Amino acid sequence: MKIITVLSGKGGTGKTTLSSNLAILLSKRKKIVVADCDADAPNLALALGLDEKDFFNWEKVETNEKAVLDEKKCIGCKKCYNVCNFGAVEWDNLKNQPIFNSLLCEGCGACQLVCPQNAIKLVKVKNGKIADTETPYGFRIFTGQLKVGSTGSGKIVSLIKEKAYLSAKQQQAEIMLLDSAAGVGCPVIASVQGSDFVVAVTEPTPSGLNDLKRALKTVEHFRIPCGVIINKYDLNKSFTKQTEDFFLKNNIPLLGKIKFDKRFVDSLVNMEPISIKSTKHRIIFEGIISNIEEQLSH
Amino acid sequence: MKIAITGGKGGTGKSTIATALAVELTKKYNTIIIDADVDCPNDHLILDIKREKIKDIFQPIPKINKEKCQKCGRCAEVCKEHAIVFIEGDYPVLIPEQCIGCSACMIACPHNAIEKDKKKIGTIYQGNYQNLKFLSAETEIGVEEESPVVNALKKEIKKKGKEFDFMIYDTSPGTHCNVISALQGTDLAICVSEPTPLGAHDLKLILELLKILKIPAKILLNKSDIGDKKLIKKIAREFKTEIIIEIPYSKKIIDSYSSGEAIKDQTIINLRKYLEENKK
Lengths: 298, 280
Description:
The complex is a heterodimer of chains A (about 300) and B (about 280). By secondary structure, chain A is α/β, with parallel strands linked by helices. Chain A has helices at about 15-30, 45, 80-85, 110-115, 155-170, 185-190, 205-220, 235-250, 260-270, 280-295; strands spanning about 1-5, 30-35, 60, 65-70, 90, 95-100, 120-125, 130-135, 140-145, 175-180, 195-200, 225-230, 255-260.
């Protein structure tokens, strides 16, 4: 089985649109499993016509811990306040006691270890949920959602991936397709780790290219082969040329170019991937798939 | 007044709006734009600002002193990030990428064998665009824990000491830790969204987060004429807020954005007026 991850650096370049179209076309020739690895703002299911209610097995997950205080034991030594590197321990001068800010607490346990009175406990928190379901297109999708105001989206992404991987193995799937979050932070690192190939989507703008370069550095860091797609390439042809030159110079294979088309927005509103109705787009995405397959065979 | 430009979904136009608004406000007010999208900062590209490095941001990282280490494995046991690998009989091995710099291992080591070292996690930059002041931070590639980068940036703002009439915070997409750190302490959040089910879904998440943080939130609907506006109106009602500005899809805006310059548009002037009327 091969694991393919779609990422971009910059948000809104078309990761989810690309993933949804690749998924339905790939599934016609191969057994696949897909996973939405953007637990912050998961959208892949929506693009495939499914909303939250179409998932029946939501399972709350605990990937984080938070510090809590036993007020009776606290002697106000301030050691916890001084040790916290995340600004999560505030000091209540009136009570001469710490206040733990759960929005900032990483659950690292440094305060618990430093406390001479054993007054700090770490408790598990439900910081997200995960689920999976069958799409109308005949493949399974795994998704998850970070609880708003919680930390640890990277760990939730790892859990989604684990579940999807087990299911893919069971079904003897040939491909696992992951749609990652924007940026290059912890959820993206969690998505990319262990992938066989990365498809990076960019747009012809200075921001698009700048963020793509950061994303590609992350991919390089994990030594994963990758290819790129320029979306909305006709919006700025001279910048597209500049982007292509960068790929050429750095030996990064260009897997495809996609024109801006208002029908992409319509397809999102209608929650149906564009290549279902548009033959022209089906051909474009099939071309991209062939190019990915060629890269994978190297 | 501290204004956050956020929105949940990526690519809805946060940086486009943040830069255009900041440039507009600068005409009359002492303004600073803070690019808190430490993952992928772009405001300097849009405004064509030559960034000047102020300083590097470091986090503590353990360094195992093999002369003192008794190979007990306590450090690996307490590390919640699994950044220390310990195999019985061997010295513990640190995986620096996984380490978030909490110091738990240093506290736990019964032999005082772990020293404090540091690793670079980001850089703080400054610059200006005409009278507009600019501050930003960028995370090092491969660093997972980004809140400390945003917090270091916020410390730097405090150090500037100068009073600004308006401080514009441009955040990352999503709702995770670095967005939370950027939003905390702001007076108003403008959520930039687009009229698609994806935009609506992510808007809802960021509005929920802002409710928890007790930050007043308003909606700016970008690309308002392509898609289905009703989706966003429904959420505005649900969260008892309103769409304060609508910006129709325009080739002109796309062109100026893709060529790397701040957009000029009547809707941005309207946004400035809205803020003047509602200034704290």
